[in-house]
C-alpha cells in the first residue's frame, strides 16, 4: 500500500497542492466574511476547473514543456481565485456577465476612484494571503515534473471535469464562462450602437412633430443618485435648498425606478424605444423630426474603446465632452457644463439637449468643491463618513440642476427640463455598504431615483402634463415619455407608456431582467 502511494504521489502531487491552495483560499474568505452557500458552489467549481485544466495540459503538452505550462496554469487559477474572492469581499456577490460588461466599459479614472472608494483591510489581507500562497504553489509545486506521467489518470480528470462543469449550479460560477458571455454581449451591443451612430435618423421614417423653432427641451441625466437622500423627497438633511426654493414650479415624481442598478444597462435600455437594441434610440427619433440634438457630457467618452453610453450620445448631431479623465487627471466638477450649455441655448432653432452629469458617482468626496462641504465627515454625525460625502455631493448636484433650470428659464423659450438619475445608490441606509451592485445583494435604494420636471409658462400653455406624480413608472419606458414631452409621434412611440400622458397605463416594474420590483421589496 505504501509502495503504491509512493508511485502515485508524484503524479497527483500537483493536484494535492492545488486542492490545498483552494481550501486555504476558501477558509480565508470564510474567516473574513463568513459562510455563503453560493460561495461553496464556487469553491467546487474552482476545484473541478483546476483538475480539468491541469489534466488537459498534461495530457496534450509534451513532457519537456510541463514545467512552464503548469506554472502558467497555476497562475491562471490563482488569478481567478483572487478576482472572485476580492469581488465577493467588496460586493458580497459573485461575478456575472453584467459585472464583466460593466468592467469593460469602465475607464481608467473610474477604476482608480473605485480602488480608492472600496479599499479595505479585509480585501488587502485576502489579497496578500492569496498572492503569497499562490507564489509558493507556482514556485515549489508547479515546476515539479513526475518521472512517469499517468495519461489514464489525466484523461479521467478531463472527463470528470467536463461532467462536473456541465451542471448549471457549477458552470454559472465559472469566471471564464462569465467572462466569455459578458464580452460577447458587450461586443454585440457595441456593434449595434456603432451602426446607430452612423445612421442618425434610424428606422423612424414616419416620425412627425409640429415645431415653431422656439423649442428648448433639456434632459438632464444624473448619476448614482438615490432619491432617499434628496430633501425634496423627505430627507431630513438640507440637501436641496435651491430646488426646494422653486418647488412650486416642479413636478416631483415619487414612484420612479431604474430598470438596472448600473449605468450601462440602465441607460442603454432607457434611451431606446423597444425591448431590442435594434429598435433605435430616442436621439435618432428626435433627429428624424428635425429637432437639433445635442449631447453634452461630463463623463469621459473613452472606456476600453468608447463607452456604450458614448455611442448613444454620438448619434446626436452635436456632441461635447467636458471631461477627459485619465490616470493623471480627475474629472472636473459638473458645473463645467454650464458655459457650454449657455452657448447651446443662445443658438437659434428648435433643439433638445441631453446633459450627462457625473452627479453623485463614487468616489463621493471627489464630486463636490470645498465650498459645498456642509456635512463634515470629521464630526462623526453619520453612520459612516461616506454618508456625509454623499450628501455633500447631492447638495452640489442640487446647485448644478438649479443652474440648468435658471439658464433654461432665462432663455424665455418654450421649454422643459427633465432631470432623473440613471440609477440609485445604497449609502448605508439598508445595509452596511455604499455603492451599487450588478446582481446579488441589491437594495431598493439602488433603483429608486429622483424624477423631476420643470416647465416654462409657454410650454404649459400649449401642453397639459399628466398631474398624478404618484404613478409607478420605470426608466424602461423613458424614451416614450421623452417623445411625448417633445410632442413627437411615430408608430414606434406608445403614449400609454408615458407617465406624462393621460392615456398612461402602469405596468409591472421589472428590474435586473426578471425581478418584479414591487413584489421583491414591498410584498407583504
Provide the helix percentage: 40-55%
Rg value: 27 Å
Proportion of beta-strand residues: 5-15%
Low-confidence stretches: none
> How many angstroms separate the termini?
62 Å
Give me the count of strands: 13
**Sheet with most strands:** 7 strands, mixed
Overall shape: elongated
Structural class: alpha/beta
- By DSSP (H or I, 4+ residues per run), the number of helices equals 18
- Spatial ordering of strands, largest sheet: 2-10-7-1-6-4-5
Instruction: Let me know the average pLDDT.
Output: 87
Please explain how this structure is put together.
With 524 residues, this protein is α/β, with parallel strands linked by helices. It contains 18 helices and 13 strands. A seven-stranded mixed beta sheet has the order 2-10-7-1-6-4-5, with helices on both faces. Strands 3-11 form a two-stranded parallel sheet. It has a two-stranded antiparallel ribbon with strand order 8-9. Strand 8 and strand 9 form a beta hairpin. Helix 1 packs antiparallel against helix 2. The longest helix is centred in the N-terminal third of the chain and has 32 residues. The model has no long low-confidence stretch (mean pLDDT 87).
Amino acid at each position: 500500500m505504501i509502495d503504491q502511494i509512493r508511485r502515485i504521489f508524484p503524479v497527483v502531487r500537483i493536484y494535492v497542492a492545488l486542492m490545498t491552495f483552494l481550501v486555504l483560499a476558501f477558509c480565508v474568505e470564510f474567516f473574513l466574511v463568513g459562510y455563503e452557500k453560493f460561495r461553496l458552489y464556487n469553491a467546487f467549481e474552482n476545484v473541478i476547473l483546476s483538475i480539468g485544466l491541469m489534466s488537459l495540459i498534461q495530457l496534450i503538452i509534451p513532457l519537456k514543456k510541463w514545467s512552464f505550462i503548469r506554472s502558467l496554469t497555476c497562475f491562471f487559477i490563482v488569478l481567478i481565485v483572487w478576482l472572485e474572492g476580492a469581488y465577493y469581499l467588496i460586493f458580497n456577490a459573485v461575478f456575472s456577465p453584467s459585472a464583466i460588461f460593466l468592467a469593460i466599459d469602465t475607464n481608467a479614472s473610474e477604476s482608480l476612484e473605485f480602488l480608492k472608494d472600496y479599499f479595505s483591510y479585509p480585501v488587502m489581507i485576502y489579497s496578500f494571503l492569496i498572492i503569497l500562497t499562490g507564489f509558493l504553489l507556482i514556485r515549489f509545486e508547479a515546476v515539479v515534473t513526475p518521472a512517469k506521467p499517468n495519461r489514464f489518470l489525466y484523461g479521467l480528470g478531463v472527463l470528470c471535469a467536463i461532467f462536473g462543469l456541465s451542471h448549471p449550479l457549477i458552470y454559472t460560477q465559472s469566471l471564464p464562462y462569465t467572462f466569455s458571455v459578458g464580452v460577447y454581449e458587450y461586443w454585440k451591443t457595441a456593434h449595434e450602437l456603432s451602426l446607430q451612430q452612423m445612421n442618425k435618423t434610424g428606422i423612424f421614417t414616419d416620425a412627425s412633430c409640429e415645431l415653431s423653432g422656439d423649442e428648448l427641451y433639456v434632459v438632464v441625466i444624473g448619476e448614482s443618485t438615490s432619491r432617499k437622500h434628496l430633501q425634496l423627497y423627505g430627507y431630513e438633511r438640507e440637501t436641496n435648498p435651491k430646488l426646494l426654493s422653486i418647488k412650486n414650479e416642479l413636478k416631483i415624481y415619487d414612484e420612479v425606478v431604474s430598470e438596472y442598478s448600473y449605468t450601462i444597462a440602465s441607460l442603454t435600455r432607457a434611451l431606446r424605444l423597444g425591448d431590442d437594441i435594434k429598435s433605435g434610440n430616442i436621439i435618432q427619433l428626435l433627429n428624424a423630426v428635425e429637432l437639433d440634438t445635442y449631447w453634452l457630457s461630463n463623463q469621459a467618452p473613452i472606456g476600453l474603446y468608447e463607452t456604450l453610453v458614448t455611442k448613444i450620445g454620438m448619434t446626436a448631431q452635436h456632441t461635447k465632452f467636458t471631461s477627459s479623465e485619465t490616470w493623471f487627471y480627475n474629472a472636473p466638477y459638473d458645473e463645467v457644463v454650464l458655459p457650454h450649455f449657455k452657448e447651446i441655448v443662445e443658438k437659434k432653432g428648435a433643439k433638445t439637449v441631453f446633459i450627462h452629469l457625473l452627479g453623485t458617482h463614487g468616489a463621493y468626496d471627489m464630486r463636490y468643491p470645498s465650498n459645498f462641504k456642509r456635512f463634515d465627515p470629521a464630526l462623526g454625525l453619520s453612520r459612516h463618513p461616506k454618508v456625509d460625502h454623499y450628501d455633500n455631493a447631492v447638495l452640489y448636484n442640487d446647485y448644478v440642476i438649479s443652474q440648468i433650470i435658471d439658464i433654461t428659464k432665462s432663455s424665455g423659450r418654450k421649454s422643459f427640463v427633465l432631470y432623473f438619475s440613471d440609477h440609485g445608490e445604497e449609502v448605508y441606509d439598508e445595509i452596511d455598504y455604499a455603492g451599487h451592485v450588478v446582481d446579488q445583494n441589491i437594495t431598493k435604494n439602488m433603483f429608486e431615483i429622483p424624477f423631476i420636471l420643470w416647465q416654462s409658462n409657454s410650454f404649459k400653455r400649449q401642453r397639459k402634463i399628466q398631474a398624478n406624480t404618484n404613478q409607478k413608472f420605470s426608466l424602461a419606458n423613458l424614451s416614450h415619455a421623452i417623445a411625448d414631452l417633445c410632442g413627437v409621434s411615430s408608430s414606434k412611440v406608445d403614449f400609454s407608456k408615458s407617465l406624462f400622458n393621460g392615456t398612461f397605463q402602469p405596468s409591472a416594474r421589472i428590474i435586473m431582467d426578471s425581478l418584479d420590483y414591487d413584489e421583491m421589496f414591498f410584498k407583504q
